Amino acid sequence: MAVATTHNPLLSIVVPIYNEEESIPHLYSRLSEVLTSYAQPYEIIAVDDGSRDQSFALLRDLANSDPRLRVVRFRRNFGQTAAFAAGFDRAQGEYIVTIDADLQNDPRDIPQLMARAAEGFDVVSGWRARRQDAFINRKLPSMIANRLISWVTGVHLHDYGCSLKVYRAEVVKNINLYGELHRFIPAVASWQGVAVTEMPVHHEARRYGKSKYGISRTIRVLLDLITVRFLLSYSTRPMQIFGLWGLLSILTGFAISLYLTFIKLLYDADIGSRPLLLLGVLLIILGVQFIGIGLMGELIMRTYYETQQKAIYVVREEVNG
Ligand code: UDP
Ligand code: MG
Q1: Mean residue pLDDT across the chain
Q2: How far is Cα of residue 65 from the mean position of the Cα atoms in its chain?
Q3: Most buried of 125, 234, 270, 296 (most Cβ within 10 A)?
Q4: CATH number of 11-234
Q5: Left, alpha or beta for 275 (phi > 0: left; psi -120 to 50: alpha)?
């Protein structure tokens, strides 16, 4: 156990790091400066996501002289979401702060965010109101993505992509992260019934190294959005959505086929060459498939919840429980 503090630290800072050797010394001193003057005890959990530069060596040296710095080193690059997850698993604080290692976020925002959390919010999301990134390939796609995510999830935030966020630890420890899902934590958390808010934070241009992402991330985020939306609304009742569409499809197909049979038998119409026939058949087959997928989903859902003894609800507290 790397933590030497005698009591449970209240604040855990989780930093994902992938090839950020130039930033690390600055990050460490800025973070330490803010946190030592901050009233609460803290721990910094640096997760080296398979860096190929000197990042790990630097972190290890810093950690050797500072027990409040804990370092986790991945075997290879597993991605930022995995790095966050590793940090969340190890965090011992009551609150968890996530922050980027590249100095684009400002640690001096942490006390404000914490103050907001203390007002009773379980998630306080940073909003890079004056974001210092390129417009065309970063800010514009991100603007569209934020609108879309807000609309689809019903949780309205200006900046889902900002890493600087504060979470009450029990909230993130309850959420399993896959893919690029870390940016959706506020949405998933809000589904669990926790209070989410946002707050403008500072943002600086990247000084050292390169951004690890390009425009291609937008597509992955969009795909994840579909997953999240589905999980939010139908993960415990897949038959409700697939079954409904399946039934509609079968009924429409059936009506079309009935009509064609009718005119064939009564008027001896030539229905073999009609596109409508294809449509009718297509809709029936599609409907049967939808219902099949719904049933499959029900089986998978039961396996998921029952093998893991997972509850389909989240309890806030119990009295005499
Ligand atoms: N990062 C990581 N693993 C990755 C990619 C990025 O741990 O596979 C870290 C990176 O070191 C940085 C943070 O995640 O601390 C955000 O990455 P970046 O600054 O490249 O993203 P941007 O700010 O450009 O969106
Ligand atoms: Mg960055």
Answers
A1: 92
A2: 34
A3: 125
A4: 3.90.550.10
A5: alpha
